[in-house]
Amino acid sequence: MDADVIVIGAGLAGLQSARSLQRAGLTVAVLEAADAVGGRVRTDRIDGFRVDRGFQLLNPAYPAVRRLIDVADLDLQSFGVGAIVRTGTTTTTLAHPLRHPRHLLATIGSDLTPARDLVALTRWIGPTLLRPTVASRASTDATLRTSFDAVGLTGRLRRDVLDTFLAGVLANSTGESSANYVRLLLRSFALGVPGLPSGGMQALPEQLAASLERSAAGTVRLRTGAREIREIAEGVQVVTDAGIVSACAAIVAVGPQHVGDLTGLPAPATRGLTTWWFRATGQPRTGPFLLLDASRPGGGPAGPIWNTAVISEVAPSYAPVGQHLVQATTLLDRPDGRASEADVRRDLARLYGTETTHWEVLAHHVIPHAVPVQSPGPIDRGPAWTGKRVLVTGDHRETASIQGALVSGERAARAVTRRLG
Fold first, then answer.
1. Do 207 and 168 belong together in one domain?
2. Running DSSP on this structure, what letter comes out for residue 373?
C-alpha cells in the first residue's frame, strides 16, 4: 500500500481530513488535479494585486475556524459591521452602533430599519442566537422566504437589506434556501467580524497544507487528477494521470460538480456567481463596508450587480500602495448574471457616482459551482459511504460554507478511522 488513506481533493474538506487522519496515526496521500491547494478557495496575483477567485470572506466566529485555524497567523483584515445600501440616488450606511458610533443616528433613524422589522427579525433568529442547536438539529425547516413571511418580516429591512445581502452570500436570489441554515449563518455574522487574510483567501488552505506531515507517499501530490476508484479485497486503488495509488481506504473530497465522476452518487446541485475585479481610478470611497444595491422598486438591484466593495479599503494588502481594488458580484440565477463588461461598468458608475471608463479589468471569474444548494431539510447529514472503503465528503454534505467544509473533513476522518479499526 502507498498509504493508509488516499484523500482525493486538496480543498478545505480534503486538507482537514488529511490533518485529522495524520493526528490519528494514519499515513495519507492527498491527490489534487490543480496546480495548488485550495479547491474553490484560490487567490491570484495580478500586477501587484491579490484577486480571490470569487468574492469570499473568512468569518472567525465559525466554531470550526476557532478550533482548527490559527486566525492570528492569517492577519485578518476586517470588514465593517454593517453595509451601505443604495436606493435610487440615496446611500445609507447601516452599521453596528458600538463599533461604528458615527453611523448611529443614520442607522436608527433610517426607514430601512423599521421597528416592526427589527422585532420580527429578533423573533426569527433569537432562539438560534442563544442556542445554535435549535437550528442545526431542528426536525422541521422551511424556505427562507416562507420563514420570513411567517414572522412578519416583510418590510424594507428584509426587501432592501437582508434579501439583497443574503442573495450574494448564497448565490441564490430565489429565497428558496434553508431557513435553518441561514439562521446559523447570520448567527456567525452576529458573533464575528468577517475579513480577508493579508495573503489572500488562499492563505487559509495553505495553512492547512503546511501543517501536514511529509510522508514517503508524498502528502499532497499536485497536478495528479483521479480518474477512477477501484475497490479491491485489500482496500482501494485510485487510477491517476501518473499511475495507480493504493491504500486501505479513500475519501472523495472533490468539488460537488465532480462527485459523480468518481462515485455512484449524483452530483449535488450548485449555485453560481461571477466576480469582476477592477483597478479603479479616482477615489472610490465606501470605507470598509459592502455596498448593496436595492434600487429596484420592491427591493433588489436595478442592475446586474448585487454587491460591490472597495476591497483595498478593507484589506490594504490586496492592492499596491496608493491604488484601489474594486470587486463587483453578479448572480448566475438571474438573466443579467452574465452581463457584459460595458453593462457592469455602467452599473458601477451609477453605484459609486463616478466615471468608470478608465477602470481596468484585472479579472472576471465566472464560477458556475460557487456553492452547493442548501435546500430546506436536515443539516447534520455527514459523509456518505459508496462502498466498504470509499467515503464522500465536502461542504455539500454539511453546510455550504467554510465551517461546513472543515467539519465535513473532520467527520470523514473519524468515520474512516473507525472503519479501519
1. no
2. -
Tell me the per-residue pLDDT of 238-254, one tens digit each, with 9 for 90 and over: 999 889 999 999 999 99
Task: Tell me how far CA of residue 21 lies from CA of 59, 82, 214, in angstroms.
Answer: 25, 39, 13
CB 74 within 8 A of CB 58: yes
Alpha carbon 411 to chain centroid, angstroms: 19
Please, how many CA atoms are within 13 Å of residue 163, restricted to the half-sphere of its CB? 27
pLDDT at residue 215, as a whole number: 59
Compute how many other C-beta atoms are within 10 angstroms of the C-beta atom of residue 228: 11
| Contact between 326 and 300 (Cβ < 8 Å) | no
Q: Are residues 157 and 239 in the same domain?
A: no
Does one domain contain both 264 and 171?
no
In sequence order, the β-bridge partners of residue 86 are 91, 293
Domain tally, the chain: 2
pTM exceeds cut of 0.85: yes
Q: Tell which residue, 256, 207, 263, 253, has the closest CA to residue 11.
A: 253
Asked if 393 and 3 count as a contact pair (C-beta separation under 8 A), the reply is no
pLDDT at 249: 97
Do 304 and 349 belong together in one domain? yes
Q: Provide the 8-state DSSP code for 268.
A: P
For residue 243, what are the β-bridge partners?
A: 240
Range of the domain at 8: 3-42+202-268+376-420
Helical H segments across 171-297, by residue range: 179-191, 203-210, 259-262
Closest CA to 22 of 208, 245, 243: 208
pLDDT digits (tens, 9 = 90+) for 345-380: 999 999 999 999 999 999 999 999 999 999 999 876
What is the spatial distance between Cα 372 and Cα 395, in angstroms, rounded to a whole number? 7
Query: What pLDDT score does 381 carry?
Result: 78
